[in-house]
Amino acid sequence: MALDQSKTLPLPQRILETYDDLTRSERRLADLLLENADALVLYSASMLSVRAGISKATTARFFQRLGYPSFKSAQKEARKPAAPASPETVRIGRFASSKADLGDHLASDMQNLVRSVEQLRSDEIAQAVNLLARAEKLWVVGFGDNYALAHFARALLIRVKPDIRMVPIGGFSVPEEFASIRSTDAMLALGIGRRTRSLRSIMASAMRADAQVLLVTDQATRAATEVATVTLRCRTKGSGVFDSVVAPVSLLTYLCSTLALRIGQSAIDRLQFIERIHEEWGDILSGDI
């Protein structure tokens, strides 16, 4: 994205657009600000440098890379009350610089996978798997564009755990479905790209019910500690007009596979039982379509 275009973007989006060009030290500060964008408002340049473990000179260069004249100008802009640019606004702005090149598309998705794995913490992955494994019921939630990701996750989870609830269900009111949540349950919430008020509301209600909440979101979203027990963030930068969901799909596949291994024999028994049902019904083609 051209520099003059990037100057209109909020801080998290500027970081994501330039992340691949940052040095290792600069990425430490980038990761800190992506995790907590309020740090720019709350801390001085010196304090940010200390928290990121980098020099003040590196901090100054970092903000200049993002298109700010200085740290002070970045901090001043961050303190202004302004509505963040929606994913659709950012997407439309890509038309001027995007091109349909398959090689660039592949390279971008590879980078999305690599950067996502680099930034995911092993302790948070383990915590996510544990809360999924211990839950009596699993609630998979995805509104809008995230419905397809939620449906994919449920299709994997239902093969290894028996009680998987999908929200929303077409034609049914969400509060009535959600009313049976218990403190022994866990929720997998999908919040990639455009996030709805309904998603935040249902996550907050789950936390108030003492259920565990796992949020899978993108890097432009801060860790939502008030509405999620664990937040796992994926890089979704697209080389063209649309964002990529390669990293979220890969993460969901990994989580479900690791969960199956964690559950062990009961997951194997369920998979085998499902396969026997398919064989009895004869609904799987043995050859090509």
TrEMBL record:
Classification lineage: Bacteria, Pseudomonadati, Pseudomonadota, Alphaproteobacteria, Rhodospirillales
GO terms of biological process kind: carbohydrate derivative metabolic process
Molecular-function annotations in GO: carbohydrate derivative binding; DNA binding; DNA-binding transcription factor activity
Secretion signal span: none
Gene3D superfamilies in the cross-refs: Glucose-6-phosphate isomerase like protein, domain 1, Winged helix-like DNA-binding domain superfamily/Winged helix DNA-binding domain
The organism's place on the tree of life at top rank: Bacteria
Domain named HTH rpiR-type: residues: 9-85
Organism the protein comes from: Skermanella aerolata
InterPro entries, alphabetized: Homeodomain-like_sf, HTH_RpiR, RpiR-like, SIS_dom, SIS_dom_sf, WH-like_DNA-bd_sf
The name this protein goes by in its record: HTH rpiR-type domain-containing protein
